[in-house]
Amino acid sequence: MTDYANQNFAAGAEVETDGNALADCRFDAVTLVYRGGAHPQFDRCTFDSCGWRFGDAALRTIQFLQQVNASPGGQDFLADIFRPGAYITE
Q1: Which of 24, 48, 50, 79 has its CA 20 to 30 A from that of 30?
Q2: Residue ranges of the domains in the chain?
Q3: Model confidence, pTM
Q4: How far is 25 from 36, CA to CA, in rounded Å?
């Protein structure tokens, strides 16, 4: 895990997020990358015109959820598991 505090991430940068703790950081037109490792921690960060890129296990999870969404009843299922206050634990 890497800790970042009061960092400015500039346009065009790719920022790996897995396992990182980021506090009071500013992200301007960067690509945030999550691969499915330890969850990143964002605390009081600001984001402007950023995008996400998913890889490895995170990408496979997104692809699976897209398949579920396209299946009969899938949208209702996803709406239920992503409703506010619903948290999935092991």
Answers
A1: 79
A2: 3-81
A3: 0.86
A4: 21
